[in-house]
Amino acid sequence: MQTTNKKVRILNLILILITLLAIGSAAYLWFENQAKNTTHTHQEPQVSSPVFLTLKPFTITLPPSEDNLDINKILYVGMVLRVEDEDQKTVLLEYLPEVRSDVLLLTSKQYVNNLKKESGKLELQEQIKTALSRQYDAKHSVKIDEVLFTDFIIR
């Protein structure tokens, strides 16, 4: 009877160890699977820092308005262009004379009455963004994300 009791105890011990190993394996696999799922769901897209190109300020003589009351008005405007990456900034720097010329020609067509209003300034920003977001040569195109005015004085 003593040997039967020992056999039952050993058999119970073996069954308990097998059960513990099975539970441990199942828990390990479950946690591994959860870790893989959370890694995929919590991946945040890389946020790159903004890239800015500061243009030297422009001094532009504005055309007279329709009512001819604002003759010889001058606009002093400084701006910063925000682009996606350093490559686009490099392209703009390589073509800086063209960029400055485009901005100058576009700004010199603006009327004082429009630029005094916020809507006129916003429209000018959009026009500059559209004019400078283009293909500069066969290899390089640039998309301007935002035009920011840093100085804006009408005299």
UniProtKB/TrEMBL annotation:
GO terms for biological process: bacterial-type flagellum-dependent swarming motility; chemotaxis. Its main location: membrane. It is a single-pass membrane protein. It is found in: Cell inner membrane; Cell membrane. GO terms for cellular component: bacterial-type flagellum basal body; plasma membrane. Signal peptide: none annotated. The chain crosses the membrane at residues 12-31. It holds the Pfam family FliL. Keywords: Cell inner membrane, Cell membrane, Cell projection, Chemotaxis, Cilium, Flagellar rotation, Flagellum, Membrane, Transmembrane, Transmembrane helix. Belongs to the FliL family. Controls the rotational direction of flagella during chemotaxis. This is Flagellar protein FliL. It comes from Gilliamella apis.
